[in-house]
Design goal:
Blueprint: E1 4-9, H1 17-26, E2 30-37, E3 56-60, E4 63-66, H2 70-81, E5 88-95, H3 107-117, E6 122-128, H4 135-152, E7 158-165, E8 174-177, E9 183-186, E10 189-193, E11 199-203, E12 207-210, H5 217-222, E13 225-232, H6 238-247, H7 250-253
Bound molecules: manganese (II) ion.
Length: 256
């Protein structure tokens, strides 16, 4: 029987309990490899390390610790470390939500973006909490969703961004297919003083407002549903392109 080859990564680091839970549950589906950052790289976005060499240390069988970003881990995994091209890439389970515009900062989602660039079905999993994580709930749904993706694959240029409420499995209402919502942070830059009394800025926290919308990722998780958003990498705004083609006078733009 063919065994699917699965690459597991994250942005919380190779020792995060979230990736250990995901690595263990993926064993149910195939031959699993972990390639993950040697330390926390949350909010690394889709950054690639180009100005220094990377080291991939095999810390145990099938488990590689890399002194780079989640994106570095995926590209090294696919191209150098795994015995063959993986059939599936899973990233997480992240400690914390990846909802709305925040996914552009996310290393967890960036790993799935990198997999999608290589045309490999890729899924990002995040658990919505700041503490006391229900990784058992997370890994239960990660397994169900990964199994489905392995059998059905994914549309072209598309990854799945999955957010899981941090509650007991039996309290989850179900799974919803959603769109990426929008959220706005207020007062998310704190002014702090260092021991010398110099002012510094610390990004994070603040009050969160969100756009209302029945079909958004945020709405789903608030109602205790697992949210699955299909995300595509083509950032072109096609309706804006059409509008601009119809209304912009490009020739006039260049007139003296
Ligand atoms: Mn993280």
């Amino acid at each position: 029987m063919y065994m699917a080859v699965i690459l597991v990564t994250n942005d919380d680091g190779v020792y995060s309990p979230g990736i250990i839970a995901l690595y263990k549950t993926m064993q149910n589906l195939g031959d699993v490899y972990m390639v993950a950052p040697d330390r926390e790289r949350s909010a690394a976005g889709h950054s690639l390390t180009m100005h220094r060499p990377l080291k991939a240390e095999e810390i145990s069988e099938h488990v590689f610790s890399v002194n780079g970003t989640p994106t570095d881990c995926v590209t090294l995994g696919i191209n150098k470390l795994l015995p063959q091209r993986p059939d599936l890439i899973v990233s997480g389970i992240n400690k914390g939500a990846n909802l709305g515009d925040d996914i552009t900062y996310s290393g967890t989602v960036a790993a799935a973006i990198e997999g999608t660039i290589f045309s490999i079905p890729s899924i990002a999993f995040s658990l919505i909490s700041a503490r006391r994580y229900h990784f058992d709930t997370g890994s239960f749904f990660a397994l169900k969703i990964a199994e489905h993706v392995l059998s059905r694959s994914l549309p072209y240029d598309t990854l799945l961004n999955v957010n899981i409420p941090n509650i007991r499995r039996e309290d989850i209402k179900g799974i919803k297919l959603t769109r990426q919502g929008k959220r706005i942070y207020e007062n998310s830059i704190q002014e702090v003083l260092n021991p010398q009394g110099e002012k510094h800025f610390w990004i994070g926290g603040g009050k969160i407002y969100r756009e209302h919308g029945e079909d958004t990722d945020m709405e789903a998780v608030e109602q205790n549903f697992v949210s699955i958003s299909p995300i595509h990498l083509d950032l072109t705004n096609f309706s804006a392109l059409k509008f601009m083609m119809e209304t912009w006078k490009i020739s006039e733009m260049l007139e003296e």
